[in-house]
Amino acid sequence: MAVWYGPISGVGMRAKRGLLLGLVLVLGGAVVATAFGQTAEVWPQSDVDKMPAGPAKDTVLYGRKLFSETYSVIGPEVRDTAMRYSGNNLSCQNCHLQGGTQKFAIPMVGVYGVFPQYIARENEVRTIEERVEGCMERSMNGRAIPLGGKEMKALVAYIQFLSTGVPVGKAVEGRGSPNLPLLTRAADPKRGQAVFMDKCALCHQENGQGQRKGAPGEATGYVYPPLWGPDSFNDGAGMHRLITSASFIRANMPFGTHYDKPDLSAEDAWDVAAYINSQPRPHRDHLDADYPNRARKPVDAPFPPYADKFTAEQHQYGPFQPLLEAQNASPQAPR
Hints:
The protein is mainly alpha-helical and 335 residues long.
């Protein structure tokens, strides 16, 4: 379940001007999705099975397997202990749906050509390989894949392949998740629990632990992934931020939802995301070192320190408009 997001400061400036809030581009770039149903571009589609036989195709196919069946290749239950890079039994496509190809479901399409780029979380320019490593350590709750190894090369080759035909640096419509209006109140986990039981529990179970494909120890992953608990993403992952998770949920959940015909209201999406993110999950140490330039820290990062005087609870649940306005008014705010 690899989820990557960049600085939200640009979103804040748009919200300040009264527009809908856009979800930050996957893999760290600040790209805005258009409102539901307003995209015009033809969505790029690449078919690896049509590649000519040879090492290039083999590498991309291995990357696709790593992406879609992460648990079976580098998960914590694989037989070769040296290959246990992931700390949970999720797959990258648990959040980057359909192997990273689904429009507005945090896809990989077009991602390759925007790297290297500045990433606020580390306050430096990073390569795509470094972003993959960050995902392994956070969303997969594991350890970094060697930069020059077979697995890293295959994952990058697959991400590059999905960007076939997309000009370098182009912000493709359909990346990230669609805009989601900000609430004027704090998101309500208690109300979100009722939404979860009504809309989510059938697949993810009432305890949020998902449905396995096989028995524990078989490295077969999940039919529906756990949303919290020991086998889920840790609290340093992008999906643990409320704006990120609520935007994704509204566009794509319950599973099978199409982004321009959401099943949940915006209010329900905010509240159910708040409920999910209020549940226990693995902890990542040293989160206080993230976003060393505090002025560029996303307003929904649920961990201190902050550059403003708002409470940690408001950073976790909102309302976010006052935080965005304060961030944009700061002399250190990105311009």
